[in-house]
Design goal:
alpha+beta, 2 domains, nine-stranded mixed β-sheet
Length: about 425
Amino acid sequence: MIRNDVAPILASLRKHKLTAFLLALQAMFVCAIICNILNLVTQRIALVSVPSGVSEERISVVETNSAVTDANWVAVHADALRSLRKLPGVSAVAAIDSLPLSGGESTFAVCSTVESFTRAMKSHTFAGPGCMQPAVLSGTQGELSTLGLKLVSGRDFLPEEYVLQDVPSAIISRSLAEHLFPGKEPLGQTFYAGSNTDHPIRVIGVVDHLVRPNPRDMASSEFTMLWPMLPNESDVTYVIRSAPADRDHVLHQAVSTLQAIDLNLVIPSEKTQTFAGMRSNYYRRDLAMIDLLLMAIATLLFVTAAGIAGLAKFWVQQRTRYVGIRRALGATRRDILTYFLTENLLIVGTGISAGIPLAYALNALLRRAYDVSHLSGLILPTCVLVLLLLGQLAAFGPALRASTASPIDSVRCRG
């Protein structure tokens, strides 16, 4: 029946070229726009869903600062850590310069060989083979266990490896290991950081996941490493590990303990939080953007469905006489329903087909101007399927009413 309906449908559409063109044009633009909005949504969702690698439900964070500039901060931090370890409910504690998703990060130009470092310096880029710019998290002894990082190979830092400068070793993320030493066993490999090509740093361990303090994209979100470098400034983050049920109590006690140790210590209330709260704050804008984009998709789909339904209703009313004649000649209700749904499928399908290359063109423009990923393989077919189903559902009501109309009443109507 569908094959037999195509010829009269095309003949009918020639009499309503402008209306059919406008509906197809709407479907084309909606397809291109929704595909790219959905691509942005999936990109944001993937970014906010990246595992931090740390035991988020067990960690509390206290960021401190001080107006004093000439203190022995290594000794101050050591004293503070001893006091914090004595608090009830605290299982581990460490002082770290930055944390995953904390916002501010320290980065170093890192190359696996002196030759690659020299080549990168000449080209003024560290994005080439064997070079990159990972984030570095420096801290005191116990940072690995306090954060709850999963060591997949190698070992933790030894006490004698903690220094104030020129660290001898590093623990890197699996993602960084795969990019810095492709096809090689990372343990025992050395690399050079900063401009110091006389001091190689040896990889002694690899952790499964460790997101950087300020992830910007999925590709480099886990280019991170731990250094056994003791914090020697007033700006430091005390990371406290405890049972989930004890986090709030431990956090309150930690602030009181730190203030009692140093009256000049500045502890902003917004910087005293659980890691879960810090993660939520970091992704606040991304989550708000996801909500807005989803609302935009819902609005576009609603407007498209309303347009298709309105046009289908208009065409049904304009062709009531035609429907009556077909019914009188023996067409069943199913035939009439199929006719209008096929007609709608041809128009909407044509518009969507034209919207596919437009979606790729729009994605190319967005990638040039913003940090937007390519359209993934599942997004486009998902958009096409949703729009086709939406178009058929929107036209189903008017088509069903046309199929249930009485042949006699339809013939009496003026088309």
